[in-house]
Amino acid sequence: GAGVSQSPRYKVAKRGQDVALRCDPISGHVSLFWYQQALGQGPEFLTYFQNEAQLDKSGLPSDRFFAERPEGSVSTLKIQRTQQEDSAVYLCASSLRSIGVATNEKLFFGSGTQLSVL
Amino acid sequence: AQSVTQLDSHVSVSEGTPVLLRCNYSSSYSPSLFWYVQHPNKGLQLLLKYTSAATLVKGINGFEAEFKKSETSFHLTKPSAHMSDAAEYFCVVRPNTGNQFYFGTGTSLTVIP
């Protein structure tokens, strides 16, 4: 596609439910990031993939959060047993090359999934 | 440790007047620096990036930013604000090691007609 696509655009979950958020990066992009953006805050890093390899998951707030990118393209962020504090916009970004190759690499962002946990 | 400080959470200017959005960073090493803009219900869009080739960086839509190492600043400017510039602006630091991009808390720009 022309850009990074995320689905669903909005997700409402009851506390305790599991949710799955999808990201379709730009075709051929090596790097993929997930960010969490709370209301009124800047995006916070969650995890980073280089192709199918999850090289950094240091930003995942708890073991309820899990991300995968099995074929090096589409990625899914799964949140188990959602809590109210998980309510945020989840942003996906992709980049053409490996981040380790170039420090000024440009990120392309999707429009995000707004998760509301009731 | 890396951090980004956007000194103003809200900036309001009149249409046609200059814009200044301030950003200071701390980084153990010479970082890469970016400004991104976020319009309502749209994805973050890159405005400009500092590549170490020149300290004054020109971006899209008439925006510029100047890298001042001595002040650890990367302020965003525009000579004349347009109504379409109203949005949230994020200063972003990418250290030259590791793979994380660190975002500031954002500055909301309002343009008054």
Question: What does the model show?
Answer:
The complex is a heterodimer of chains A (118) and B (113). Chain A is an all-beta fold and 118 residues long. Chain A is 0% helix and 47% strand. Chain A starts with a strand and ends with a strand. With 113 residues, chain B is mostly beta strands. In chain B, 0% of the residues lie in helices and 52% in strands. Chain B has strands at residues 3-6, 10-14, 19-21, 23-26, 32-38, 45-50, 56-58, 64-68, 73-78, 87-94, 102-103, 107-112. Chain B starts with a strand and ends with a strand.
The percent range for strand residues of chain A is: over 45%
Main sheet record of chain B: 6 strands, mixed
Provide mean pLDDT of chain A, rounded: 93
Q: List how many beta strands of chain A DSSP finds.
A: 11
Quickly count the helices of chain A: 0
Structural class of chain B: mainly beta
Based on the structure, what is the oligomeric state of the protein chains? heterodimer
Structural class of chain A: mainly beta
Strand content of chain B: over 45%
Order of helices and strands of chain B: EEEEEEEEEEEE
Low-confidence stretches of chain B: none
**Overall helicity of chain B:** under 10%
Biggest protein-protein contact in the assembly: A-B, 29 and 28 residues
Work out the helix count of chain B.
Answer: 0
Report, as a whole number of angstroms, the end-to-end distance of chain A: 33 Å
